[in-house]
Amino acid sequence: MILSTVALYACFLLIILALVKPIGGYLARAFAGERTFLDPALRPVERLIYSLCGIDARQEMNSKQYALAFVLFSLAGTLLLYAILRLQAFLPFYDPAHLITPLTPDLAMNTAVSFSTTTTWQAYAGETTMSYTSQMVGLVAQNFLAGAGGLAIGIAFIRGFARQHTRTLGNFWVDLVRGTLWVLLPASILVSLALVWQGIPMNFNPYSIVHTLSGGMQTIAQGPIAAMESIENLGTNGGGFFNVNGAHPYQNPTWFTNLLEMLSIAVIPAALTNTFGRMVGRPRQGWLLFWVMVFLFVVALGLGTWAEQSGNPALAPVVGAPQPNMEGKEVRFGVSSSILTAVTTSNGATGSTNSAHDSYTPLGGAVPLTNMFLGEMIFGGLGTGIYSILMVALLGLFLTGLMIGRTPEYLGKRIEPPEMKLLAIYTLMGPLGILALTAVAVATGPGLAALTTNSGPHGLTEIIYAYTSSFANNGQSFAGLSANSPFYNVTTAIAMLLGRFGLAIPALVFAGLFAQQTSRPMTPGKLRTDSPLFASVIIGTALIVVALTYLPAVALGPIIEHLRL
To answer: pTM for the full model?
Structure first.
């Protein structure tokens, strides 16, 4: 690994480290309703929204009410987006000359579910499918609202750990408004301005037709790209304006935009660990979660860089030395920035890629796949990342409690049979949403029909990757899978819904049970949850669960493909 690669990775992580504490503190104040520097401008807007929508900001919800509001809000967003997509031909800024991909009912349904769950799985090319109205009014709006909805769930989950003797976790509508106004809106404005400064278009111009030097003609897509790019990353959505996403020079032209966009994905989820520590009154707990995330992130960076720098071993005897694998990567980014993006996006709920993961080496492609298997516990999505790593930590506590014969506790609250059942449901949701649907795909004609480019181990990996990405609400893909078919549009939508609501609802109910408990004092016989030993428990639990669940599938896909090189 050359010095420039190490410098890039170190710079990325140091910037995150520098921002975790100030942004974590800001988030804690914003969602507690405490004073921030944006209050003079945003408080009147907040009160107006509450007045128009009939929201009583003082009325709090229990876990079931909070979950119901979250589900109904997501359902309403899905239906509204579906209507916009189906009617886009009758709405402004529709260009039939260039929008040549038909938005069939199943594709529109898949896209609506995708954006309302922050998955932004795209079985279409944005520049040939979506009008400016669909992009800005439909997709960008859901990037804001779905991202804010996930952030609200994360904050409510933290409240369950911080509160005692109560059944309430806050008010979903208040958290949604504050997440939108105080977090996503100002951040997206700043990032959008920076992206425009770097040359990313922000207009509503018609597509440009130009004559090339070879005498041909080329259509160059225009549009409100900067606005969509900023919130797709900040909202951990990832759905790009273009089919090739961050590999397109209009969406990601320079190393600086690539770094800024990756920071947009990771900083707020990372800062939520600090928010957690502040809200529970134990900052060391938050820092431990953060350093666990960083450790796993660095391991993924190292493995991914090694795999792609080593390249195909079959080529080494021909050229005399190992050659980096540049297939599917932009020359302006190279291996290092491509791997940084692959690891960042696969650890979050953001499928915004700048290279073709389908063209990675087998082991290189296995790195983002394994990251998604881990379930957003490394930074993760807005709100979903913090409850993902905490649910893994709680599962680790439960297992260690079985070993020593003691009732496991976290922050002085016991994990008893009701909580254990919720942990079991949460853990089993992944195999249900990934392995079961993969089995259906490889055993049916419609599932296998999408393997138009590859078969064998790589074809299996493409199918597993699709369902893993959908369940992780991530959205990136191995593009060799022709996924725009009724079969995949329906089954990947099922995986998205399971990954969004099948995990969020058990997590909320768990937080509601924790909020009712009393925090007990620490005694010498209890496992300290702010120690390096507990960090190793979290890491070990995550790796063991992933290995026991998914290793056979990985062995039949990337591992066999690597051995056959």
So the answer is: 0.93
